[in-house]
């Protein structure tokens, strides 16, 4: 057993990587959840060599570095013994901030959900209501955006209930009806349904802990696969006891890619709480009829009901509030205050094409649809606005009926404000309206399920604001480090430059990730279990939707639940897995020197490790 020592925060510095020309590979070789693949990878000519071996808490923070601003569906694995795809499990995304776990459970259960103690709950299960703003998609002819919504529903929190020392996931309610399948109506809507089908194998209440010798025998042949490259760092930990069962460079800082989002999710849930909502306000400007829209950092804000993110706050509703508050004064001008997020808008360690390649964008305090020009463009490689705050403010001015041709400018909202006379105009600074984002737990779901880089950067800045740091890349990294320390995590094994994982200057150790996952799952901090709601499921949802489908990896389908990370030459996976004997483990595998032109082989090698953990007792 590895004993974790108490660690202190590390010194802070920033490693800046000069942008280099990059070349995008074929579609099949694209690192979809992070950015892309570049021929030559991280060791392409002209790119500096990365640190090797132990990265002893090299902080990635320091004075803000200002960079020049740039001008189908897949077959599902069968549920055991049914010949049918495993059913999705629904959880309403909004959870009260004071949710507490059921006694003996490692995961909090939404109010009203049936307790599971080793068997399916008796009686007819009642389907929970569909969350506001996220109606079930219809059954056919879905657009890419609607298919994305379906995947999000599939990956929404699995009902994770520990029975003794294991884990079971149960499907409540008529799932086919929620997902819009064509089904004949029943005569009596209250007629009992068959007992829920377990998505995962029912664990034994006294599941044995794998031995370190058993783990080594199973994993050593796999972690040495050539497709994983020359540096493979691994940690496997028992969730209940916290005991490390296998380690290979477990404390070594490694480029994590999008696995960084697990740290972002845990720290923002700890700092803001699951129920927190991000507000977007409009206030009266200095001149009569001037309206200042104040960005609060909500990346999911929509223009109208056709926004990209389900349940998003809307500018058209804000405009209606403003027009009512102004009374007879017609709006004459819109100013945008996006000063909540100081620059730079791009992290210096990002590859040079990320701002324009569709996987990232300028990070501003006001934007609509994650800065997408077209809300229907898709979740990843979508064209983004160069100036998201100005684009959103122009859309708002149009909704207000501001005269055409009136220029939208950046500025600062007036301070103060007060009540206006019944027939008078509001005093400068008076709030005219406000709309709010979905709750934080839903935003974390979106970030993790879709590996949404723009949402991740916005949530990282919420950690900064909660800890009185500047809402910038540097301030967010400093605040996340601070919250990790408060949670008792080994912050000297954490060095962040952003919240999405797009930066190659990020370093995280595998053991920090397994400690973080165990902390979120052991019930001591129930609000942190919100990271599991959007965690992709092997062969089923999110970025693991099309993985764990080969004969060598099928044992992990429906059993491995993990966040993936991909950059050129970098592959990572971290999450949860239940062994064949029912023991719940956290695992993290980080590789940052993989062959740049064989991403499929690298992913397969990672999946073989996850499947081996799922298929063994390892004793």
Automatic annotation (TrEMBL):
The chain crosses the membrane at residues 150-170. Residues 83-95, 121-138 have a biased composition (Pro residues). Residues 29-52 have a biased composition (Basic and acidic residues). GO terms for molecular function: serine-type carboxypeptidase activity. It holds the Pfam family Peptidase_S13. Gene3D superfamilies: D-Ala-D-Ala carboxypeptidase C, peptidase S13, DD-peptidase/beta-lactamase superfamily. The keyword Transmembrane applies. Residues 1-145, 407-435 are annotated as: Disordered. GO terms for biological process: peptidoglycan metabolic process; proteolysis. Residues 1-10 have a biased composition (Basic residues). InterPro entries: Beta-lactam/transpept-like (IPR012338), Peptidase_S13 (IPR000667). Signal peptide: none annotated. Keywords: Carboxypeptidase, Hydrolase, Membrane, Protease, Transmembrane, Transmembrane helix. Residues 108-120, 420-431 have a biased composition (Low complexity). Belongs to the peptidase S13 family. This is D-alanyl-D-alanine carboxypeptidase / D-alanyl-D-alanine-endopeptidase (Penicillin-binding protein 4). It comes from Micromonospora echinospora (Micromonospora purpurea).
């Amino acid at each position: 057993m590895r004993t974790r020592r108490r660690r202190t925060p590390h010194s802070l510095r920033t490693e800046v990587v000069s942008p280099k020309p990059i070349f995008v590979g074929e579609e099949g070789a694209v690192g979809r959840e992070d950015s892309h693949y570049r021929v030559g990878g991280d060791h392409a000519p002209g790119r500096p060599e990365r640190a090797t071996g132990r990265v002893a808490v090299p902080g990635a923070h320091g004075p803000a570095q200002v960079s020049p601003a740039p001008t189908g569906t897949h077959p599902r694995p069968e549920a055991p013994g049914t010949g049918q795809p495993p059913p999705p499990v629904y959880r309403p995304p909004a959870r009260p901030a004071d949710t507490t776990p059921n006694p003996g459970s490692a995961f909090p259960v939404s109010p009203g959900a049936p307790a599971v103690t080793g068997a399916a709950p008796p009686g007819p299960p009642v389907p929970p209501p569909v969350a506001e703003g996220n109606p079930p998609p219809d059954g056919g002819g879905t657009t890419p955006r609607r298919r994305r919504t379906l995947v999000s529903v599939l990956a929404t929190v699995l009902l994770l209930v520990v029975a003794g020392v294991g884990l079971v996931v149960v499907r409540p309610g008529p799932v086919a009806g929620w997902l819009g399948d064509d089904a004949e109506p029943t005569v009596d809507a209250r007629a009992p349904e068959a007992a829920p089908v377990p998505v995962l194998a029912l664990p034994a209440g006294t599941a044995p802990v794998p031995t370190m010798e058993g783990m080594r025998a199973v994993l050593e042949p796999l972690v040495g696969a050539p497709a994983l490259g020359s540096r493979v760092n691994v940690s496997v930990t028992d969730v209940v006891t916290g005991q490390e069962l296998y380690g290979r460079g477990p404390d070594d800082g490694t480029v994590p890619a999008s696995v960084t989002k697990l740290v972002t999710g845990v720290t923002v849930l700890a700092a803001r709480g699951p129920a927190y909502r991000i507000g977007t306000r409009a206030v009266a400007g200095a001149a009569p009829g001037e309206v200042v829209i104040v960005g609060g950092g909500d990346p999911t804000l929509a223009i109208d009901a056709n926004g990209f993110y389900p349940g998003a706050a809307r500018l058209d509703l804000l405009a209606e509030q403003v027009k009512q508050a102004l009374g007879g004064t017609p709006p004459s001008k819109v100013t945008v205050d996006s000063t909540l997020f100081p620059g730079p808008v791009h992290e210096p360690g990002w590859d040079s094409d990320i701002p324009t390649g569709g996987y990232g964008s300028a990070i501003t305090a006001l934007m609509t649809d994650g800065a997408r020009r077209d809300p229907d463009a898709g979740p990843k490689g979508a064209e983004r606005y160069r100036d998201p705050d100005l684009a959103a403010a122009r859309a708002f001015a149009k909704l207000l009926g501001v005269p055409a041709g009136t220029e939208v400018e950046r500025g600062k909202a007036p301070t103060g404000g007060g009540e206006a006379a019944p027939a008078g105009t509001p005093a400068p600074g008076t709030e005219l309206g406000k709309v709010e984002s979905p709750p934080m737990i839903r935003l974390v779901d979106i970030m993790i399920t879709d590996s949404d880089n723009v949402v991740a950067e916005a949530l990282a800045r919420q950690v900064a604001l909660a800890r009185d740091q500047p809402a910038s890349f540097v301030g967010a990294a400093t605040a996340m480090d601070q919250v990790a320390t408060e949670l008792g995590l080994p912050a000297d094994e954490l060095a962040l430059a952003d919240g999405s994982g797009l930066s190659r200057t990020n370093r995280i150790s595998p053991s920090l990730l397994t400690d973080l996952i165990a902390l979120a799952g052991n019930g001591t901090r129930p609000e942190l279990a919100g990271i599991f709601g959007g965690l992709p499921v092997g062969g089923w949802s999110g970025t693991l939707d099309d993985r764990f489908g080969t004969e060598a990896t099928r044992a992990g389908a429906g059993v491995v639940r993990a966040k993936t990370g991909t950059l050129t030459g970098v592959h990572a996976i971290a999450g949860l897995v239940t062994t064949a004997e029912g023991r719940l483990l956290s695992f993290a595998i980080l590789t940052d020197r993989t062959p740049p032109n064989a991403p499929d082989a690298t992913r397969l090698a990672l999946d073989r490790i996850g499947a081996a953990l799922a298929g063994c007792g390892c004793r």
